[in-house]
Write a structure and sequence with these properties.
36% helix, 20 helices, 16% strand
């Protein structure tokens, strides 16, 4: 559309039971902000919606552990997380786009909002009346209080062994280790999380179930249509759910903290709408609430939600990989159910994909893998995390945005370490981008200034035609990468532009001609590169804005330009004839260098002062018992004892067969000749990096004394070593030359 597409950016709703950590930011909250800024720069009409998920058991667990009311928990952390996201530069404020309300805006809402509750209850009642729910008796864990009485235990009040991968510490309905979801009664070796010594038993309780099975055929058709768009992880998880066959899923639960079931009768006292069914509706209710509060009229939301000839919206959902099925299966099923009801149909009528006038389904779900912390998964509940609020108290938000963007877990898990963070900032962001800007500013400041930019007299694009062609081509690559949600690739291309600027100045050596006489040999050509350097800085201020909004605006002002960088159109970056303005002679470097030793010392100090009993919080700053000080390590720095390392037995093996894993799309079942009479089986997640033919015959290094464990039904007896550069390249560690299989690696 000539006046801009309607683009809805839907961002996963964080539980308001603790502060956000860097894993949340990399997986859910930075990517949508980058994309929203990009779409706005393209001239599109962007509405971004999310908020705090304030119901459900994560909230009640935290409240019980702290001995306070659930409302106190959500009020505290909604404020903390809202502020942290704004401090990070996420565009949740202002609520209305700077170009005008017709261009959209954003709203970070709350599921405790009364308007959200009313709309969810209305949708629930409509689906109930249309016959999309059925009553079922279900088995649920019940905690027996030794003093008498008891209570039904929600999923998060139960821990045990995962029925799928057999990992310990699995939650009642989902395993963090393998991502599997299941009914709580399927959990093995269950115990009460709040009262581990209390006896638990299974009792029967009645609940309403949503008829997901009625949507199987339509969802399969929808998934088939998205195959060329969805990432491999999204395709695989959705396929797994659909292949298993959809079953009715409980939409009510025995819990008082939540949205009451809008059905009369004593049977529904003490029951609420299940948070999985309620919270995903926040994308729709948040859009409607934004429309009422800030829109041109109360129906403005429809431009972003309904298919029609004037506005065919685009929907993008940003979330972590563990949340994929809720957005490719469950939420589309709810939307199709609501469309069904709006069209006057019931559960007895065949379900169809949305048509004109219906609520729109997602166009893409660019879900992220995990950002790990020194090899382990970030975990709010286990307090293995670096918290966003405390991080932003000590570091420039753009340094975090840069590191997480260039290290974004797009196709595979990535790892946060303080060593790499410091290296990326000092040796990439500052050494390339910051250094180029500093050279242009400092050299320009040394030229005579008479009220206008001294660069104007040297401005000569004819001499830089090749540079312009290079940057125009690079701009197309950046644009294409952003449209395809390849954010780290787009940022690398932008950094290539800065590196090109450094090379341009290095070759031209303008510092040699700052004081030479007018007309001196090579003076004009050399200083024209400095003038073009100003133009390249202007270019960088525009194209880095989605990634680094604070330094982008700082650079825009340093260049003497008026207005705000984020309001500049995307392709205005390619205006190579824009007026050159006088630069700020009192400029400051864009970024400050980091000191790893100082950071490690600060982290150690914070660990020693942290409060271990601040359940679900963990913002560093409380007191800690002296006896535990030496046992803690700074987050992101893990020291390994030499004796521990020597326990790992590395040996040489030769790949003799490679087969598809029968139950996992991303795994191979590899057979190794390990020097023994019997071959060794290893399940390897390298399918996207190697074909089976490429693997055959390779001599590799593997961990020989790793405890065997079942992976999707196949027992894996070790692990092959591989190198990962963090940018999508993964290579097996192989042996140089011939050596006997089974040889010890030392």
């Amino acid at each position: 559309m000539s006046d801009g597409d309607h683009v809805l950016i839907c961002v996963a709703w964080p539980y308001a039971n603790g502060p956000l950590h860097l894993g949340h930011v990399a997986g859910c909250y930075l990517p949508p902000d980058i994309h929203a800024r990009f779409e706005r720069a393209l001239g599109n009409r962007v509405l971004m919606v999310s908020g705090s998920d304030e119901h459900g058991t994560p909230i009640t667990v935290s409240a019980e552990q702290e001995g306070i009311e659930p409302q106190d928990i959500v009020d505290r952390f909604h404020e903390i997380n809202s502020k942290a996201l704004l401090d990070l530069g996420c565009t949740w404020m202002p609520n209305v786009d700077g170009r005008g309300v017709e261009y959209g805006g954003s709203l970070f809402n709350r599921t405790t909002d009364l308007e959200h509750k009313k709309r969810v209850q209305s949708n629930f009642k409509d689906l109930y009346d249309a016959g999309f729910f059925e009553m079922r008796a279900m088995e649920q864990y019940y905690e027996l209080n030794p003093s008498g009485g008891g209570r039904f235990l929600p999923d998060r009040y139960i821990e045990g062994t995962c029925p799928n991968c057999e990992a310990d510490g699995a939650r009642g309905d989902q395993c963090d280790s393998c991502g599997a979801t299941y009914e709580s009664s399927e959990l093995r070796n269950p115990i009460s999380k709040m009262n581990p010594t209390f006896e638990v038993e299974i009792r029967e309780t009645e609940h309403l179930f949503y008829r997901l099975d009625l949507f199987q055929e339509a969802l399969q058709l929808h998934a088939d249509q998205r195959q060329s768009v969805w990432k491999p992880n999204v395709r695989a998880m959705t396929k797994q759910w659909l292949d298993m066959g959809l079953r009715p899923r409980a939409v009510t639960r025995d819990l008082t903290w939540g949205i009451n079931v809008p059905i009369d009768g004593d049977d529904w006292i003490g029951k609420c709408i299940y948070v999985w069914f309620e919270a995903v509706q926040g994308y729709l209710t948040c859009s409607q609430i934004w429309s009422e509060k800030y829109g041109e009229d109360s129906a403005a939301w429809e431009s972003w939600w309904t298919n029609n000839e004037q506005s065919n919206p685009r929907h993008y959902y940003f979330l972590g990989k563990d949340n994929v099925p809720f957005h490719t299966v469950i939420w589309p099923a709810i939307l199709m159910g609501l469309n069904h009801v709006r069209n006057g149909k019931t559960a007895n009528d065949p379900v169809e994909l949305p048509g004109m006038g219906d609520l729109h389904l997602e166009d893409n779900v660019p879900a992220m893998e995990y950002l790990m912390l020194a090899g382990g998964q970030f975990s709010k509940s286990r307090k293995h995390a670096i918290w966003l609020p405390s991080f932003l108290e000590r570091f420039d938000p753009d340094t975090l945005r840069y590191y997480l963007s260039i290290n974004m877990p797009e196709g595979h898990d990535t790892d946060f370490t303080w060593n790499e963070f410091v290296d990326r900032i000092n040796n990439e962001l500052i050494a390339t981008y910051g250094n180029f800007v500093n050279r242009v500013m400092s050299l320009t400041a040394r030229l005579p200034n008479e009220g206008v930019s001294p660069l104007i007299q040297f401005d000569d694009n004819v001499l830089h035609a090749d540079d312009i062609v290079f940057l125009d081509t690079l701009h197309s690559k950046i644009t294409d990468s952003l449209k395809r949600h390849r954010y780290k690739e787009a940022l690398r291309f932008a950094m290539n532009a800065a590196q090109h600027g450094n090379q341009l100045l290095q070759n031209a050596a303008p510092w040699k001609h700052l004081k030479s006489e007018e007309g001196a040999d090579g003076r004009h050509e050399s200083l024209s590169s400095l003038a073009f350097g100003w133009r390249l800085c202007r270019y960088l201020a525009v194209v880095t804005q989605p990634f680094l909004p604070f330094s982008s605006q700082k650079l825009w002002a340093m260049l003497g330009l008026e207005g705000e960088a984020h309001l500049q159109s995307w392709d205005s970056a390619l205006n190579w004839t824009a007026d050159i303005c006088p630069t700020d002679e009192n400029y400051q470097p864009l970024f400050k260098r980091l000191d790893l030793d100082e950071i490690v010392q600060q982290e150690q100090s914070l660990v020693e002062e942290s409060e271990p009993s601040a359940i679900g919080h963990g913002v560093k700053g409380g007191k800690k018992e002296k006896k535990n000080m030496k046992e803690e390590q700074p987050e992101g720095i893990v020291y390994l004892e030499f004796e521990t390392f020597m326990e790992v037995e590395l040996r040489v093996g030769k790949i003799v067969s490679v087969e598809e894993h029968p139950n996992a799309d991303r795994l191979y079942v590899v057979k190794l000749d390990d020097g023994t009479d019997s071959q060794r089986t290893i399940c390897a997640g390298i399918k996207e990096y190697y074909s089976s033919e490429e693997l055959m015959g390779k001599t590799v290094v593997f961990v020989a004394n790793l405890k065997p464990r079942p992976l999707r039904g196949v027992v894996s007896e070790g692990m092959m070593l591989a190198a990962d550069d963090g940018d999508g390249a993964v290579k097996l560690v192989t042996i140089d030359g011939d050596i006997s299989t089974g040889s010890l690696v030392r």
